[in-house]
Specification:
With 1019 residues, the protein is of the alpha+beta class. 68% of the residues lie in helices and 7% in strands. It is built from 45 helices and 16 strands. The longest helix has 41 residues, at 863-903.
Length: 1019
């Protein structure tokens, strides 16, 4: 009978297939089952329920222990039953599907019961009575369970058990499937996870279950680093309009993980927060804790993506290197004070050396945010009683501590964690030993670090954790580098780059490239090694460069640093000049301008403290005050170079602009340098394509110099003839720099002459010295280069590229300040008249340049006439007071020459006496009458022209403020001159002087000095 059924059914199956009709196949199978008899037909029907069967499964299906082996062997003869080997058989798919459809339609309740029996059978075979379910101990003394299966057969039984459970109880089955999948995923057993999902997919699933299955399949893609495929699948799920909220939260969290690994940090953190909000709202504390941990990792990854701490250029010259150390120490003083106040148990800031560099402030903010999420996750795990979760969170907090430079404290904490129970798990022990190895590397304990890294690498490779393996390989290269094993280090880095290039793991590649660049720029590295490193970096087809500051605060930092020099000049102009009373020959007391070095020192010290305070305040604002949401929105762009193009991605990871190398038409740079190296705050590069679009690269971008090298290499390979055109300037190695340095040197010399530390020769033309002095004290030699650096070149560059930026607005504010100061004070705000006039003209020029750039972009041809006209008008406004001040300076210089000549017993030259009369010109031009009459009186007195001197001093008495120090001094000099030829009149003047000194507090200091002079005169 068996042979007849077999022959008949085989013939019907062949006929149905030749006709291609499922309906005919169904009809013929039904006829075969009818002819087989009820008992045998039932066996044939039941054997279609499991995906495969053997003799023991046949026993479960028949619910009988008799004849199972015989029936099983008879079924082997059917051609529509496949022999799977290992004592197992299965129906052809078409036959099984037809029979299953009959079960579902006609006998669903019985079908469910059979699925339950099969689930119990497979579940018992997976975990025999008395065994530990699905797990085994890692080590004899451990209470932690490994995710390694007991056997391959056990995994197979688990898949079949889940298949039947999903059929019997879909809700419970999906819960079990998710738990099993998570277990396999955590063990990095992605192939087994994919098999599990494949089996589960054969069960009849509703739309919700199908979506969960789709989600888990995307997770396997994510785990195997097929990130683009995973992202598409997650995004497709999230786009579904009726997505289950829990699945939506899980999908968003997983998609955020993909975004984190592909550098789309703003998107990642936003999705993590959305998921966290859902888990908190629904009371899913474990999922919330896991999400907080992932959110912290995202912020830490964002920081690491910038290349970790800023690596400054270290000068080769020992003196310059020492100066750099002193400078970093100086700007790090506020952070040293903050670290002392916070204490060793509250490491909210890294070591002062890291804090001192503004390039690291954003990094500190991100790391602090990561640590905050780690701490919240740790507290959540503690509430759940999850020691393993607590260990993971605490290990990440220790990572931040180590990153902050406190490697000894981090080492002690890691060693404490290694003694805790969860650390017995080989996987987490390896992860902790990785952190411990980094601490040893920081302390230069290379041997200990290498042993730990070798052990950890073996564990991660056994588990198949590619991400952790990448970290270990990078650290092994770093250890070899520190040990001086150049070949091993370069070879290790090269292998790592090749491997992760194949895997498409960009984050690991960029971390290795950062270490290579830092190594190349390290002082003491030989040129040969640098060339090998450069070749290794150049061979990498794709490179990423990330900015190190946010745009809004970047402008603020630029303005604060730009204003340092003008502010210093203005402060010195206010506080440095003082008026002293000096004794000349023939008993003459005169006022002299003295530039007090003590005041200058104190002013510079106060200004330094002020700027240190401003610098530290900006740092505090970025690190503690600036909302993290704003940081996420204003993340710097990412520049990516590839063999065929260069691209810029915005903070959301969206492609903002891409330019093929063949389409680059101009390569323009505005690099501002002190000597050779560009200043990051003020440098930019633009690549312009054939359509006139500009791809901007800010100087604040990490490894800005390497970007230029990379661009040059890419253009050369592409056959482009475009060369870099630098429209920038060097502050010192330029005419402007020479002008500024000359101005500073002349300022020192003029100060020495004015303070009488050096004597101006009596033969030196007073007019020439007055001109040099006036130009020097006006600061023109410094202000002109400053205007060029701040306005002329940047705005010219902006015009060339047709940029729409806010710099003209900034310049308008800077230019308006000195103009308003001049107008409101009537041109007397500063003690140095020359600087009042020069800053006014400078401000008008800045305003004009900014106005044209801001409001007349389309009429740039009018720039020169408008700026020239505005500057000319400003010069006309100050022309008369400027000439008056110059003539006053001529007479003041001549007075000093006359005094010097008389002091050595020589007669004043006729030219000096002529130059003394320049005071009258100054007075006629509107200069101060008191000072001009005083100078003329002093010149006449020292020349012995007492009656003429008395006349001038009398005019000075009338011009001076009543009961003032100046009036007392003029009365004394008048008395000194009159007493030479008229005793009675001099007595009257003396009485007037004594009365003034007796009644005026304002003249007290002058009267004390006059009294001493009077005592000397009477003797």
């Amino acid at each position: 009978m068996t042979g007849d059924i077999h022959s008949y059914l085989s013939d019907m199956l062949s006929a149905a297939k030749s006709k291609g009709g499922d309906s005919l196949l169904t009809f013929n199978i039904d006829q075969v089952l009818r002819s087989a008899g009820p008992r045998k037909a039932e066996v044939l029907r039941r054997c279609a329920i499991p995906r495969w069967f053997d003799a023991s499964i046949l026993r479960v299906l028949r619910e009988s222990d008799e004849s199972n082996e015989r029936i099983f062997e008879q079924m082997r003869e059917f051609s529509f039953i496949r022999d799977l080997g290992d004592g197992r058989m299965a129906y052809h798919d078409q036959v099984r599907q037809i029979l299953l459809a009959e079960w579902v339609e006609q006998r669903p309740a019985e079908l469910t019961q059979i699925h339950r029996r099969l689930y119990s059978y497979f579940n018992n075979r997976m975990t025999p009575p008395g065994s530990t379910r699905r797990a085994m101990q890692l080590v004899p003394e451990s209470n932690m369970l490994s995710v390694v299966p007991m056997s391959i057969q056990s995994d197979m039984f688990r898949r079949e058990a889940l298949y039947h459970l999903i059929n019997a109880d879909p809700i419970r089955g999906m819960d079990e499937l998710r738990a099993a999948f998570k277990e396999l995923e955590s063990a990095h057993r992605l192939a087994d996870a994919e098999l599990l999902l494949q089996v589960a997919g054969e069960a009849p699933l509703n739309s919700l279950q199908q979506r969960w299955l789709q989600y888990m399949r995307a997770r396997t893609q994510q785990g195997s680093l097929n990130l683009e495929v995973a992202a598409r699948q997650f995004e497709a799920l999230r786009a579904m309009p009726d997505l289950d909220p829990e699945l939506g939260a899980e999908t968003s969290r997983s998609l955020a993980g993909v975004y984190s690994e592909t550098g789309q940090w703003a998107r990642a953190t936003r999705l993590f927060r959305q998921s966290l909000e859902y888990f908190r709202r629904t009371g899913n504390q474990r999922a919330a804790a896991d999400t907080m941990l992932l959110l912290g990792e995202a912020y830490q990854g964002l920081g690491i993506s910038t290349g970790s701490w800023h690596v400054p250029h270290v000068p080769e010259h020992e003196l310059l290197r020492y100066m750099q150390i002193v400078w970093v120490w100086l700007i790090g003083i506020p952070f040293q004070i903050a670290a002392l106040l916070l204490g060793p148990h509250n490491r909210l800031l890294p070591i002062p050396e890291y804090c001192a560099r503004y390039q690291n402030w954003l990094l500190i903010r991100l790391y602090n945010t990561a640590r905050m999420w780690y701490a919240q996750a740790r507290d959540a795990y503690r509430r759940l009683g999850d020691e393993g979760g607590m260990l993971r969170a605490e290990q990440r907090v220790i990572d931040i501590l180590r990153l902050y430079g406190y490697h000894e404290e981090a080492r002690a904490q890691v060693e404490a964690l290694l003694k805790r129970k969860p650390a017995r798990d080989p996987y987490w022990r390896a992860w902790l030993e990785r952190t411990l190895a980094e601490c040893h590397l920081a302390a230069n304990n290379i041997g200990s670090a290498q042993v730990l890294l070798t052990n950890a690498l073996a564990v991660f490779r056994e588990f198949g954790d590619v991400r952790r393996e990448a970290t270990i390989l990078m650290l092994q290269g770093q250890a070899a580098m520190q040990a001086g094993n150049i070949d091993a280090a370069l070879g290790g880095f090269a292998k790592s780059l090749e491997r992760y290039r194949t895997l498409g793991y960009a984050a690991a590649r960029e971390r290795i490239l950062h270490e290579l660049r830092a190594w190349k720029h390290r002082p003491g590295v030989s040129e040969g090694v640098r060339q090998r490193i450069a070749s290794l970096i150049a061979a990498e087809p794709e490179k990423r460069y990330v900015g190190r500051f946010i745009s809004s605060y970047l402008r603020l930092l630029q303005i604060a640093s730009v204003m340092a020099l003008p502010t210093a000049l203005l402060l010195l102009a206010v506080v440095a000049p003082t008026t002293n009373i000096i004794s000349l020959t023939n008993g003459v007391l005169s006022t002299a301008i003295f530039y007090d070095p003590l005041r200058i020192t104190v002013a510079l010290a106060l200004l330094t403290l002020f700027y240190l305070g401003v610098y530290a305040s900006l740092a505090a604002a970025v690190i503690y005050v600036l909302p993290i949401s704003r940081i996420e929105r204003e993340q710097p762009d990412v520049i990516v170079t590839r063999p065929d193009q260069i691209a810029r991605y915005d903070s959301m990871g969206n492609l903002a602009l891409e330019t093929p190398w063949a389409e680059v038409r101009r390569w323009l740079a505005l690099d501002r340098s002190v000597w050779d190296r560009p200043l990051p705050l003020y440098s930019r590069t633009f690549l312009e394509d054939a359509a006139g679009r500009d791809l901007a690269i800010d100087g604040i971008t990490g490894w800005y110099g390497d970007v230029q090298t990379d661009i040059a290499q890419r253009l050369t390979v592409a056959g482009s003839q475009v060369e870099r055109q630098n429209l920038g300037y060097r502050l010192l190695r330029s005419k402007s720099g020479a002008s500024a340095v000359t101005g500073i040197v002349l300022l020192l010399l003029v100060t020495m002459f004015e303070n009488q530390w050096l004597s101006l020769p009596i033969w030196f033309p007073a007019g020439l010295y007055a001109l040099v002095s006036f130009i020097t004290l006006s600061g023109v030699l410094i202000l002109v280069p400053l205007a060029y650096w701040l306005a002329t070149r940047p705005l010219k560059f902006q015009h060339i590229l047709q940029l729409n930026e806010i710099w003209p607005n900034v310049l308008m504010v800077i230019g308006a300040l000195p103009v308003l100061l001049y107008i409101l004070s009537g041109g007397t705000a500063l003690s140095i008249n020359a600087m009042n006039y020069s800053t006014f003209v400078w401000g008008v020029y800045m305003l004009a340049e900014a106005f044209v750039a801001r409001y007349m972009v389309a009429l740039r041809s009018l720039r020169m006439p408008i700026v020239a006209l505005a500057t000319l008008l400003a010069l006309l406004v100050v022309a008369q007071p400027t000439y008056a001040s110059y003539r006053w300076q001529v007479s003041y210089t001549a007075k000093g020459q006359v005094a010097d000549a008389v002091a050595v017993g020589a007669a004043p030259t006729m030219m000096s006496e002529v130059n003394c009369s320049a005071a009258a010109d100054a007075r006629a031009l509107g200069d101060d009458a008191l000072s001009t009459f005083t100078i003329q009186g002093d010149c006449a007195a020292m020349s012995g022209n007492w009656e003429e001197a008395a006349g001038y001093y009398g005019e000075a008495v009338s011009s001076a403020p009543q009961n003032s120090e100046e009036q007392a001094l003029a009365l004394y000099n008048q008395w000194n001159a009159v007493r030479r030829y008229d005793r009675s009149q001099s007595a009257q003047i003396l009485v007037q002087l004594n009365n003034l000194c007796a009644t005026s507090h304002q003249a007290a200091l002058a009267c004390i000095q006059i009294a001493g002079q009077l005592d000397g005169s009477t003797h």
